[in-house]
Amino acid sequence: MEKFKSGFVSLVGRTNVGKSTLLNALVKEKVAITANKVQTTRTAIKAIINNENYQIVITDTPGIHKPKSKLGETMVTTAFTMFSEVDVILFLIDATSTEIGKGDSRILEKIKESGKPCILIINKIDLVKKESLLNLIKIYSNEYDFKAVIPVSAFKKSGIEKIIDELVKILPEGPKYYAEDEYTDQTMRQIAEEIIREKALKFLNDEVPHGIYVEVEKFKNRKTTKGEEIYDIDATIYCIRESHKGIIIGKGGNLLKKIASYARLDLEKMLDTKVNLKVWVKVKEDWQEKDDIVNKFKLK
């Protein structure tokens, strides 16, 4: 009889290399928001892959970047703190790279310090030629003895199963840490906050997205007069400037309506029921430096 394997994995990489897209592809559920913006992931999000022979708990960490605020410092600290608590590290890099840049070099140093088994994953292989890919593999393989090097396209879900196969080889025998039907440690309220933030990121440009965070104040299930189930969700998008507030709301409230409409559709899909979503925008200057808010993004 095959022994049951389980363990913890940290997914690390620079900002915008596709960590959240990869995580969602691995779990086959939407557990992390995705956007074509840097620093989309702000906290450590756990995703659980369940199988009759194994349970893999993967944490998607914030992208490594040069911090410019207390929030940024917390995000980077969270990413590196995970290394001491996992069995395996998944190091994700961009296939379009031609050398080891500063961010990736910093991550490599931390991986070396940890001494943990590491799998190198090269994402976005559909964007490069084979020669470039082979050259990149050679450059990184000269720097560290990776347990495996796996080229993938997270967007096209190509090469995903290979990652799971390699993880199962490395992980120790162990118990089930989570129930079989669980695929994330996030609460529904937290997922709702992230979905609303994702839609805001989708429609906002320039520096505005980095200055927002979302808080759900009400998340309540009730029955309508017709006996149908519905969720009442009230949320606030906080931004750091009055000028940003106007941008988020948009002319005649059009952009805010768009953000809320797209978020509601995702929430209804997730909750499998109707959603009554109300979203407001408020200014909270310097929230990125306030401990009571930044502490929410610390590793729990």
Task: Describe, in plain words, how this protein is organized in 3D.
This protein folds into two domains: 5-170, Rossmann fold (3-Layer(aba) Sandwich), CATH 3.40.50.300; 188-297, 2-Layer Sandwich (GMP Synthetase, Chain A, domain 3), CATH 3.30.300. Mean pLDDT is 84; it is low at 35-42. Helix content is 34%, strand content 24%. It has nine helices and nine strands. The strands form two sheets. The chain has a six-stranded mixed sheet, with helices on both faces. A three-stranded mixed sheet has the order 7-8-9. The protein has helices spanning 19-27, 70-81, 102-114, 130-141, 160-170, 188-203, 242-249, 254-271, 291-294, and strands at residues 5-13, 45-50, 54-60, 88-94, 118-123, 148-151, 213-223, 229-239, 274-283.
Largest sheet, strands/sense/barrel? 6 strands, mixed
Strand order of the largest sheet: 2-3-1-4-5-6
State the helix count.
9
Show unreliable segments.
35-42
Oligomeric form: single chain
In the CATH hierarchy, the third-tier topology of the largest domain is known as Rossmann fold
- Using only CA atoms, what is the Rg? 20 Å
Q: What's the CATH class of the largest domain, please?
A: Alpha Beta
Number of strands: 9
Please, what is the CATH homologous superfamily of the largest domain? P-loop containing nucleotide triphosphate hydrolases
Instruction: Please trace the helix and strand order, writing H or E for each element.
Output: EHEEHEHEHEHHEEHHEH
- Can you tell me the overall shape? globular
Write the layout of secondary structure elements.
Layout (H helix, E strand, L loop, with lengths): L4 E9 L5 H9 L17 E6 L3 E7 L9 H12 L6 E7 L7 H13 L3 E6 L6 H12 L6 E4 L8 H11 L17 H16 L9 E11 L5 E11 L2 H8 L4 H18 L2 E10 L7 H4 L6
Parallel strand pairs: 1-3, 1-4, 4-5, 5-6, 8-9
Antiparallel strand pairs: 2-3, 7-8
Helix pairs in contact: 6-8
